[in-house]
Amino acid sequence: MRNIKAIGLMILAVLLGVAAAVYAAGWIASQGSIASNKVVVANVDIELGSRINAQMLGAIDWPSGSLPPGTFSDVQELQDRVAKVGVLRGEAVLEGKLAPKGTLGGLSAVIADGKRAMTVRVNDVVGVAGFALPGNYVDVMVNAQQDKAKGEEGKQISKTVLEHVLVLAVAQEAGRDDTKPKVVSAVTLELSLEDSEKLDLARSVGTLSLVLRNQVDKAKVVTAGITKSQLFGEKEIVPVSLAPAALAAAKPRSFISKPMTAPALECVEVIQSSGRALNCF
User: Could you tell me the pTM of the whole model?
Assistant: First the structure.
């Protein structure tokens, strides 16, 4: 009886093995029949701003149903093109990751249309301890002396003048794959032309500081800045020249002289033998 059970289990195991083999063969055959296209991929890590050549690329079969837009099928199509973002090894090279045809290599190839690159001096404190790396976004704050008004002293003020500014490069490095802090002496920022003018004026009138912000935080906050007296909670004395209401209240009143009216007189008529007389007093 035991032998019959053992033989039955062996037969069942053989049948399950045959079924699995048939299923695997069918799956492999179906995979082989899937249509595919040649897609150019990177054979090495390509840094942004690098000029691409044939030695950096290769071609692999890619299923037609999952082909991403902007792919290339021929390596020669990418000769001398410039990468505007980093491309990792084995990653498909897409048109959206490349600068326009004819663009020269270097940092200028990765600057967005309508933007400018401007470099500012930093140190370990201004540069957020080296955490302001390429690809990060920062705010720019200036600490300066306000212009003096008549009869006043210029106030020290700190104010955020630029928000959500992209860091293009630190020192001479523009790679965005490294996350290790780097203390450098210069940071290159991507700005509009108007913001470039603001930054140029800000660094000439005061001290700059970079404020690192969250990558996905794009909200802008308008502030009036803060002065030293506000920082320490001191009450500011409003000058008379800036307080027209107080000035008007303190202005001496002008009195207009009114004509004095004579007091009313009482008159008595006196009748005498010689006649009548009116006496007033």
Answer: 0.59
